[in-house]
Automatic annotation (TrEMBL), chain D:
Gene3D superfamilies referenced in this protein's UniProt entry, alphabetically: NADH-ubiquinone/plastoquinone oxidoreductase chain 6, subunit NuoJ
Entry superkingdom: Bacteria
Membrane topology: Multi-pass membrane protein
Name used for this protein in its record: Uncharacterized MnhB-related membrane protein
Species of provenance: Acetomicrobium thermoterrenum DSM 13490
Recorded GO CC terms: plasma membrane
Length: 249, 487, 487, 86, 113
């Protein structure tokens, strides 16, 4: 026992030493009160440049839109990858879901949950929220279905093919909105400069392309995350094959 | 504008393939081939346009301080050219092998290519991190694509170590943001000299360790041999040839822009790690019996050579490093495709079982020995030329020990590569059935020819001027900053 | 990053060496016409053509204007010889390639440092602090005392035409490099190395029972002569060195060809199995062997005598009397061992008639015209140079008058007589027995054990456990943090 | 006042993290991880970052914890080959 | 000032705990938990970097000074990237369990040397 706990102490000291190095870096950086860099510009002129009141959404979907495109492709890769990893296992209806009372209660809550998710997505440019959060809430709704009603029920309602369709069409929508900016010569993913209606700041119909991008990302994230969940709970009858080319020594 | 397409075209292809799979299943086979070729030509044209005059494209119309700017100068144009050819070769090899197989493989392949081009042309540090994450995630999945137990285990180890590396890079970026507030690389290289020294140390150290994990330099390379040897043939060729070079490009771009004047110690660290990789990689390769694992350890050693070139921090060193990178890309893609095909065909990867291969796979063994001669560094082929210019640059920068490590490494690599060839040429047992694939042999042969051609490049003045321009352009960061912040 | 420019240097030294290379190539390709039977056509064509390829590369090396191209063509010629040794056994060929590769790589590192310091690695004296690099690099090529471990093994196990070419000319390329290098600090080192090489070669040669190995050790001792001549540093010394190089190349090539053709007939190199009437079976070969033996022992009228006389004269001129005495003792030893070789090799009847494993008398009587013409060419050249010794010095621009005056004749004949008498006295002890002789390469096998130790140490840290890998990541991170914080 | 509240949140953050890493049973480790995520969402609210708090709450404590539980149930289904000692 | 330094301190301690978990624990799930702890600590560090004492959330009708919105955008991206990494790690864990029938990290040593 003493050897392994000695090893533990040594590793803990190593981590602490690393943490100490990072702490020294932080002590050297005394935080200034005024905001330096482009953030100051974002706060003053986000309203008239993008028409959105939620500055974080303005940054995400207008000033640094390529980050969000990259992020959307991160989700897309992991969804496609996990689906590939679990492609060969067959889907069997396993659980019968929870008791009757829970089913009735959840069927009462689900519409409000979906409404809430739609609200987060659509109001992304006005209040805190956006495509990612809304899509994730929508995915939790589908997961709730699976747990409460048993995996069979939900699979019948939304077939994996339609989820793929929603996901890739959401991603394509994102890129097409961007191409409009490119086509009008104002640079990829341009918002007001590409002719999207800025509308009246603070209203529902404002913020140029930001609500459209929010919807696209919302579709993609919701379909993607529910595909991840559903490919993981498949029953794993399929034994992992040996590497086709390797003589296992 | 064309530089933006190198990212967008493969991305749209990746999003289109599921739709084609759902609606027009029959078109899938031809569509994937068409997509691959289109991506190759778009990247090549972007590289050429970026080479003539450094192309700039402002995303969303916002200037450099506000939004993200994509810039293709000579250095990124050169690496774009490298990734286009490597990616194209790997695509042809995988297309030949899988036909339209699991279509999700091609989705991830195009996403990897899109994010690779994104890393090469972006001018913003956080955007670099995001594309880097897409790129690593796609690499983890491609390693684990064959779903055999080795591939999954290698994928897990690659994922955990790669994510730890990504967290170190993210910490570095967080500290940069805390110190300066802005994220554009050009703005950073102007502002970074004025921040306190301890903060700069933390930034430099965390970025360095994160990138060393991602590149697979010696002290932290443990995932590389597992990942490159247990991956599928075309994937291991892609990983060794191209994916490693893009990580080295990131290290090169960051260290040149941020740490050239402020912290020159970074370059000594890179040289030391490079020397360690050379020695460690070659020593480990001596003991290998599995041919793909041997090639993977040889990649670790060749990374060491490129890092020695980068560590000089001078124009000569960087162009020598690029010349070795493109040489190594051709050699490794050819070697991995040839070795992978032989391993799959003979159902074994152990060298001792591959005895007497010369008698029934004559052309494969000839191409393999030509590539081995190139990678060991026999005179007329490219490998020797790049090693010579690396040695020149290292001695000019004053570090003699790396030059000696380079020489010592060449001798050891000659030893274990000749050992492999001795098994190929020895008299062997009767051959199993002969499946004569033309495409793998064609690709490996093409790579061998490119090695021969690259051997002549230093003798032709105009071609050599291209290579030395890369180093000159990369080192004078003032020109990069002026083009970025001019509009 | 300037472009590779090939510059030439034509002077007396490289011209004479090039003529020697041409002559050796002619005689050996004629010899190997007969050496390989008609039915192995492909191998025969290879053995006839390869001396010419070797001659082309070595001439390029001799005429190259800077150390880089000298190293390049040196490496190309050793690769050519690697292919010549390959048909017989692969391990010796690999052994030879690795040693020569490390030799030429050291020359490359030296040239790279020279370019870094002086801007150009022009052929000629080298900055003093680089001397250890160039000396060790060329030392491996010319088998200087510490670095001669490869010569006996490779020369004895190579096929006959290759070993004739090896000890004939490939060693001389290194000598040419040493001559180019002969500036002040180098000559003292060579003056010490020369005599010790001569003595060491003789001591090892006397106790050998393998014919070719005996000749190989004689090569080392003769090289000792040449190195001593260069070590004097004077113009006369260098011309004497060149003269002895030419002479040694001729008679050593002749000796190797004779012994090789007998070995081909007997199928073994062990002297104890030779000697029952070989002289009568191979009258022509024995005659050529006699010419070579007399030349090497410096019998007046042979080229050996003239070159040794010049060496002694140049030594006396700079009053190195002790060195002259050492060379005379070495000469006695040479005569002793050649008496042993001729007696036990050709005449000794021996009480126990031991048959060579597969001695076919048929071969000895078959007319071998080409083999004899090849040997005749070399023998004629040795005698011709012996008869009119002024030819080479005048060509080199040095008129050296007193070749045949009494004092030089006496100092040549006394060692021959003493050697003969000593042999008659110690005939019994010198019988080629089965005792084992220890040389440096026995040490090498021990060293090889230690060398394979460090890959196993490095392999220890590749335990496959992900937790170990993360610990290595953290330790590397901490080291980088401390290093960057310090600078 | 908010500084006091924030220091409580930070203390409980570190506490739940230690519990998540040290506890033997995997299920309770996952539960403490989701508590950790919720606490982190609260910390983000205290740091005036509502967007981030919402994302953290939904994705980290919602989806990732459910994926953890799915993975845990998959490994439990066929029972273990031999007991995984700690 | 105290909130920022406090949260930076917590973030670094969490980073150390995450690293420690990955190293010292043999169970594969604990490694994934360690990864998510490290990811959360980096998120906390970035968000706290943008905090301004007495600031208001960056929704436009701001009363008084606003908090720096840029780190919020990065944190959003970092959360999503971290989530997809963890999802993939869990997928690998399930697949590895299928083959090795155990989640003990020291038994998963097929590839070594």
């Amino acid at each position: 026992m003493s050897k392994s706990c000695f090893l533990r102490i040594v590793t803990f000291l190593l981590c602490l030493a690393l943490g100490w190095q990072f702490w020294k870096g932080i002590l050297a950086l005394e935080p200034t009160q005024i905001i330096i860099g482009p953030a100051a510009h974002y706060i003053e002129s986000a309203a008239e440049e993008t028409g959105a009141t939620n500055i974080v959404a303005a940054i995400l979907f207008d000033y640094r839109a390529l980050d969000t495109l990259g992020e959307a492709s991160v989700i897309y890769t992991s969804v496609c990858g996990i689906a590939m990893l679990f492609a060969k296992s067959k889907f069997k209806i396993s659980s019968t879901g929870l008791s009757f009372i829970v089913k009735r209660g959840v069927s009462f809550i689900i519409p409000f949950l979906l409404l809430y998710a739609a609200g987060i997505v659509l109001m992304g440019h006005i209040s805190p929220g956006g495509g990612f959060q809304g899509g994730a809430v929508f995915a939790t709704a589908t997961i709730l279905f699976c747990i409460v009603y048993g995996s069979g029920f939900e699979a019948v309602m939304i077939k994996p093919k339609t989820k793929e369709l929603i996901e890739s069409s959401g991603a394509l929508m994102f890129v097409l909105i961007g191409f409009v900016g490119l086509w009008t010569g104002a640079g990829f993913l341009a918002n007001i400069a590409a002719g999207y209606p800025k509308g009246e700041v603070g209203r529902f119909l404002s913020g140029g392309s930001i609500p459209l991008l929010n919807i696209a990302v919302g579709m993609k994230v919701s379909a993607g995350l529910s595909t991840i969940f559903y490919s993981m709970i498949k029953l794993l009858e399929f034994e992992v094959t040996k590497h086709p080319g390797v003589k296992n020594k | 504008m064309i530089s933006l397409l190198t990212v967008l075209i493969p991305l749209t292809w990746a999003f289109l393939i599921p739709l084609i799979h759902i609606f027009r299943k029959t078109w899938l086979k031809r569509a994937i081939l068409l997509f691959g070729i289109a991506v190759f030509f778009v990247t090549i044209s972007a590289a050429i346009s970026g080479w003539k005059q450094s192309a700039l494209s402002f995303l969303g119309g916002w200037p450099a301080e506000l939004g993200i700017v994509l810039i293709v100068d000579k250095l990124s144009a050169a690496f774009l050219f490298l990734s286009a050819i490597g990616g194209g070769a790997a695509f042809l090899a995988s297309y030949g092998r899988l036909k339209e197989g699991p279509w999700r493989y091609y989705v991830i392949f195009f996403l990897l290519q899109a994010s690779m081009n994104g890393v090469l042309i972006t001018g913003d540090i956080f955007n670099l991190y995001v594309f880097y994450e897409v790129f690593s995630l796609a690499a983890y999945l491609l390693v684990a694509f064959t779903i055999s137990w080795q591939a999954i285990e290698a994928g897990l180890k690659y994922l955990v170590l790669g994510t730890i590396g990504a967290f170190f890079i993210l910490l570095g970026i967080a500290y940069i943001f805390m110190a300066t507030g802005s994220l554009n690389m050009a703005v950073l290289s102007l502002v970074l000299p004025h921040i306190p020294n301890e903060a700069l140390t933390v930034i430099a150290a965390s970025l360095l360790i994160g990138l060393f994990i991602k590149i697979g330099a010696f002290p932290v390379h443990f995932w590389l041999p597992d990942a490159h040897s247990s991956a599928q043939t075309a994937v291991s060729a892609l990983l060794s040839g191209v994916v490693v070079k893009v990580s080295i490009y990131t290290l090169l771009r960051l260290s040149l822009l941020l740490f050239l004047e402020t912290k020159p110690a970074v370059f000594t660290v890179i040289t030391v790690v490079g020397t360690l990789s050379v020695l460690g990689g070659h020593l480990m390769a001596l003991r290998q019996e599995d041919i793909k694992r041997l090639l993977a350890y040889s990649t670790v050693a060749q990374i060491g050579y490129v890092l020695i070139g980068v560590g000089t921090g001078m124009a000569a060193g960087i162009s020598a490093a690029f010349f070795h990178a493109i040489n190594h890309m051709f050699m490794k893609v050819g070697l991995f495709i040839a070795a992978g095909h032989i391993a799959e065909d003979m159902k074994t990867r152990n060298i001792y079982d591959l005895r007497g291969l010369y008698h029934h796979r004559r052309w494969f063994v000839i191409v393999f020995s030509l590539l081995t001669a190139a990678i060991v560094g026999i005179h007329p082929l490219g490998g020797f030329m790049s090693k010579w210019y690396l040695m020149l640059a290292a001695t000019k920068a004053g570090n003699v020990i790396p030059a000696l490590a380079l020489a010592f490494g060449t001798v050891i690599s000659a030893f274990y590569y000749m050992r492999v060839l001795s098994f190929f040429y020895s008299s062997g047992d009767p051959p199993p059935r002969q499946t004569y694939p033309y495409w793998n042999l064609a690709i490996a042969g093409a790579c061998a020819l490119c090695c021969v051609f690259l051997g002549i490049v230093p003798l032709v003045p105009s071609l050599w001027k291209l290579v030395s321009d890369i180093g000159l352009n990369a080192v004078d960061t003032a020109e990069y900053i002026s083009t970025m912040l001019s509009k | 990053m300037e472009i590779l420019k090939f510059s030439f240097v034509f002077d007396k030294l490289s011209l004479s060496m090039a003529m020697l290379a041409l002559f050796m190539a002619i005689s050996i390709s004629i010899f190997s016409l007969d050496y390989v039977e008609k039915k192995q056509a492909k191998e025969r064509r290879f053995f006839v053509l390869s001396p010419w390829m070797f001659c082309v590369f070595s001439c390029m090396a001799l005429f190259s204007g800077d150390w880089f191209f000298f190293g390049v063509f040196l490496e190309m010629s050793s690769i050519m010889l690697f292919f010549m040794i390959l048909p017989l056994n692969f391990r010796t060929a690999l052994y030879y390639l690795l040693t020569q590769l490390s030799g030429s790589l050291l020359v490359f590192v030296g040239a790279a440092i020279m370019i870094a310091e002086r801007g150009s690695a022009a052929m000629g004296p080298v900055p003093p602090h680089l001397l250890w690099l160039f000396l060790s690099g060329l030392g491996i090529k010319t088998a200087l005392l510490g670095l001669h471990f490869w010569l006996p093994k490779v020369h004895s196990e190579a096929p006959t035409p290759t070993s004739a070419l090896l000890s004939g000319f490939s060693v001389k390329l290194g000598i040419y490099g040493l001559i180019r290098l002969a500036s002040l600090p180098a000559t003292d080192v060579l003056m010490v190395l020369g005599p010790s090489m001569a003595l060491y070669g003789i001591i090892q040669a006397i106790s050998q029972h393998d014919a070719k190995r005996l000749l190989a050790y004689h090569t080392i001792s003769q090289l000792g002569y040449i190195v001593t001549a260069i070590g004097t540093g004077t113009a006369l010394g260098i011309v004497a060195g060149v003269y002895h190089t030419v002479a040694h190349a001729l008679f050593k090539g002749l000796l190797f060809l004779c012994i090789g053709s007998i070995e081909k007939a007997y199928g073994t190199r062990d002297l104890s199995l030779w000697g029952h009437g070989t002289a009568r079976a191979f009258p022509v070969t024995f005659a050529f062997f006699l010419v070579g033996a007399l030349a090497i022992s410096g019998f007046p009228g042979m080229s050996g005598f003239a070159s040794k006389a010049m060496i002694k004269a140049s030594l006396k001129e700079n009053s190195f009397y002790t060195v002259v005495w050492i060379l005379q003792a070495a000469n006695v030893g040479t005569v002793l061992s050649f008496c042993k070789l001729s007696y036990y090799g050709f005449f000794f009847k021996g009480d126990v008639v031991r048959k060579a494993p597969h001695y076919n008398p048929l071969l000895s009587y078959k007319k071998r015209i080409f083999q004899n013409t090849g040997m005749a060419l070399l023998a004629f050249m040795t005698i011709f140079l012996g008869i009119c010794p002024q030819l080479l010095p005048n060509f080199m621009g040095m008129n050296f008058g007193n070749f045949f005056e009494t004092e030089a004749l006496l100092s040549a004949i006394i060692p021959i007589f003493t050697g003969g008498i000593l042999f008659i006295v110690f005939k019994k002890t010198l019988t080629p027995g089965k005792h084992k002789i220890y040389d440096l390469d026995f040490l090498l096998i021990k060293l090889y054990g230690i060398l394979t130790l460090c890959p196993t140490i490095v392999a220890k840290i590749h335990t496959g456990k992900l937790r170990q890998y993360t610990i290595h990541v953290i330790i590397a991170a901490l080291v980088i943090f401390f290093f960057l914080a310090r600078t | 006042m908010s500084a006091l509240f924030y220091s409580f949140v930070c203390f409980f953050l570190i506490l739940t993290a230690l519990v998540a890493s040290e506890i033997k049973d995997i299920l309770s480790a996952v539960i403490s991880l989701s508590v950790f995520s919720v606490l982190l969402a609260i910390a983000f609210v205290a740091l005036q970052a509502p967007d981030v708090a919402l994302t953290q709450a939904v994705i980290s404590s919602g989806l990732i914890t459910s994926l953890f539980l799915v993975a845990y149930s998959q490994t439990q289904k066929e029972g273990r080959r031999e007991n995984d000692e700690e | 000032m105290t909130i920022i330094t406090l949260s930076h301190g917590t973030a670094i301690i969490l980073f150390c705990i995450g690293l420690y978990t990955i190293i010292s624990k043999r169970n594969l799930f604990k490694t994934v938990i360690g990864l998510s702890l490290m990811e959360s600590s980096v998120l906390l560090l970035i968000v706290a970097a943008g905090f301004v004492q007495g600031g208001r959330p960056p929704i436009l009708p701001i009363e008084g000074i606003a908090v720096n919105p840029l780190p919020h955008a990065f944190t959003l991206t970092a959360i999503v990237i971290g989530a997809s990494d963890l999802a993939l790690a869990l997928a690998f864990v399930i697949k590895l369990h299928q083959r090795y029938k155990t989640v003990d990290l020291d038994k998963i040593r097929g590839l070594r040397g």
